[in-house]
Amino acid sequence: MIRKITITFISVLLFINIKAQDIQETFSGTRILNGHSIETLKKNMLQFRVEHRFGDMLSGWNPSNIIQNWLGFDQASDIRFAFEYGITDKLMIGLGRIKGTGRPYRSVVDGFVKYRFITQNKSAKKPVSMTLISSSTLTYASASSDETQIQSFPEFAHRIAYSTQLNMARKFGERFSLALMPTYVHRNYVLPTDVNGLFALGTAFNLKVSKTVGIILEYYHTFHNKINSSGDIIRDKNYNSLSAGFEFVTNGHLFQIVLTNSKGLSETQFIPGTYSNWLNGEFRLGFSITRNFKL
Amino acid sequence: MEDSSSIGVENISLEDLLIELGDSSYPHSLEKYDKKKFNIGKDLINNGRTIRNGKKTKRISTFFVCIDCHNIGREFNLLESQSSLDRLNFAKNNFIPYLPGSTFYGIYNRTSFYNDDYVKKYGDLVNKASNNLNEAIQVCAKYCSSGRYLDEWELEAIMHYFKGNELKINDLDLNYEILLDIENVANLDHNQKNDLKNKINSFYRKFYSATFLPAMDVNIRKYGDGGNVENGKFIYNKSCLHCHANSRVTYLNLGNDKLSAEMFEKNLSNYSDKSLYQIIRYGTYPKAGRKQYMPLFTKEKMSDDQINDLVSYIKKLSNK
User: Fold this and answer.
1) Which of A28, A141, B55, B203 could be A107's S-S partner, Cβ–Cβ 3.0 to 4.6 Å?
2) From CA A252, how far away is CA A293, in angstroms rounded?
3) Contact residues on chain A for B253, CB-CB shorter than 8 A
């Protein structure tokens, strides 16, 4: 009798546990496309990432680009290699090396810390998942002698840029996830026609076609004054980052194919430094591949 | 009907009794049981590591702990059974995982390991392990769990854990006449002792059979027709999700959701790794860079009917 009562009690506890489970796989990986997602790597998981952005596919809608640049495959706008690691199931870090777009940064190292502090859970009345990401990039490129250029980097601190993001996401049903990403980017050194601190609001969705295939859209809208204190028009050549892609999940890998008007990888590049316009055919193909290793 | 406790033999260890009846001790027999070592063994089995000299010890395996594949408690009402139906019913009634490995409960009293078809998978490795529990544990630690050989103290601790969970007389479903014989064992002659030993040995298993089956031919699969959906749901939750829920052991994350079910349903009629008929019978193999793998289920650990039950649940989940 005691045995039966014990088993029933354990069963009820387990049932409650199942009902109270956190929502899984709001996004398939730690990145949506260019930017972070709410997901973190699990404890002791090491991830190797390769991210690549090619050149413009149809710049100026000029058909000769198809032949001359082979849809941009001949060029590499940006490349990132990184190792990222889950310290706990909620806390992860990453360290990467980015080629840099050259506008303004080249030869960049990046690092970030990411902490997931709320996980969507219906039973616990948590309607969304929330993650805080703090990242930084440092360019170690040789300084230019042209002092009118940012790349002259008069001081070491000028080489550094930061980004802080509150990433919020909710999974609706089994297939659809929506994310909102208020982001603040600070670059220590910018041109007079730019701003050091830039606020952006990102939004994205992921639609899972199947267990392994998903369709993704990501957009970051920047907010800033149109003119500076001297009356100059600022950031008039910049565009907001808009990316579309699809992903394919396999056992231990995540492949993403992306079409984006952003050249740069990392928040300090693609949010403040997108100079391409989709409407001019200035978008490019990119991909990211991840491989997980359990340590 | 009187039970063992009423005549005071309930706590006699099965090993001690069999020795008294003329058996030699097990090759892995421990002379003295140590509770401290038992607790260390328990830690190793449940967590894959322990605390020693104030420090965490090195994990036995990065990928698995013992209880990913083995229960530590009883799996059958009647210990002489190895029927997959009995095992499933017991698991359902007691809400325990339904796993590919045999339980550690009573393993101390077993004499044969990696039986029958396991030689197909592990080859010569099972030669020494097949009749030696110490060797069997080492093969499991190094190869089955993609880990390392155990240090001597670890192996000893695990053996003490097994000793602590050895079978006692009251674990067996012995009848009153046998219990009386046990109580009067000192007065039995050689033949009577032999007779009693044979009777006792028929009440538990010294080994579990292991039959590897091929993936069922696509033309004879029932695809869930006539399957027991409730059984299937239990198997999905207590076998598949035991490892796959929240990607706990593997990268493949599964849940009681339509997307997971659709993935399986699409592949029911092929021989790919996503076909339940295939993956359950063959599992996967560890490879460089991805050492975690899925062990196969033998016929004894999951019958074809139970796979059909599982498929019937998957189809229901897919169409919900």
Assistant:
1) A141
2) 8
3) 24-25
